[in-house]
Amino acid sequence: xxxxxxxxxxxxxxxxxxxxxxxxxxxxxxxxxxxxxxxxxxxxxxxxxxxxxxxxxxxxxxxxxxxxxxxxxxxxxxxxxxxxxxxxxxxxxxxxxxxxxxxxxxxxxxxxxxxxxxxxxxxxxxxxxxxx
Length: 132
What we know:
This protein is α/β, with parallel strands linked by helices. The protein has helices spanning 16-36, 83-90, 107-120, and strands spanning 49-50, 61-65, 71-73, 76-78, 96-101, 124-127, 130-131.
């Protein structure tokens, strides 16, 4: 009687080519994912320098004022009388609003934007600064 040789006796091989393909796929996936995380539609402003803690929660509502006193709510250009409705529509439940004002922005425009956000229900304001 003849017995078949068991498969356990055969030596296994590690194929490296499929492993290389998977590694290149993962590399490309992570590179594309990291590019998608970049904020390419940001408003260009020059922030004042200062020391502040980094935000670690979700993306808060941002009111930006550029050097020409143009107001943006979450990167959307709005007129002075449209700040309050825009903030009401986009405000998160925590009530945090980040104020990102250019160094050359007028003080009055920034204050008027903050007052409109306060009327819309904003509770706390965070001022964006450039880290030193």
